[in-house]
Amino acid sequence: MQSQATSPLEYIDSLPEDRKKVMTALRHEILKNLPDGFSEVIGYGMLGYVVPHSLYPAGYHCDPKLPLPFMNLASQKNFIAIYHMGIYINKDLLDWFTAEYARQSKVKLDMGKSCIRFKKTDQIPICLIGELASKITPAQWIEMYERLKNER
């Protein structure tokens, strides 16, 4: 479900009470750990963490008017979702995350290519999500993105 919020705080405030606490905690942990240079925005109706045009003027290849997306956080109808483009592109990062998740959680990982889904809010490894957010700098993300884009 896409939010019509225009700011991160408006997004959080629009959530049902049972989601506000965990989404606030996740947002705080991501912002605390995200390397300098990323910006927090509303993108695709979710909280988004992007490389701004000031660092990557080319923007997102699908729509260059948009900044380069990196990570999103969303309260969906049946789950909380973390979308992390780095785990989609970087196998070493994916392997690290899945191993750490297995070590830290007793709940089976529910994951797509870049989407990590949590159906129960009390089972989200918030600190692990913060650590995941810290693993790639904007410069590294631009380099990975450019390499992938040029391979196609």
TrEMBL record:
Check the record and name the SUPFAM superfamilies matching this protein: YdhG-like
| Start and end residues of each YdhG-like domain | 19-133
Protein name (Swiss-Prot/TrEMBL): YdhG-like domain-containing protein
What is the organism of origin for this protein? Pseudarcicella hirudinis
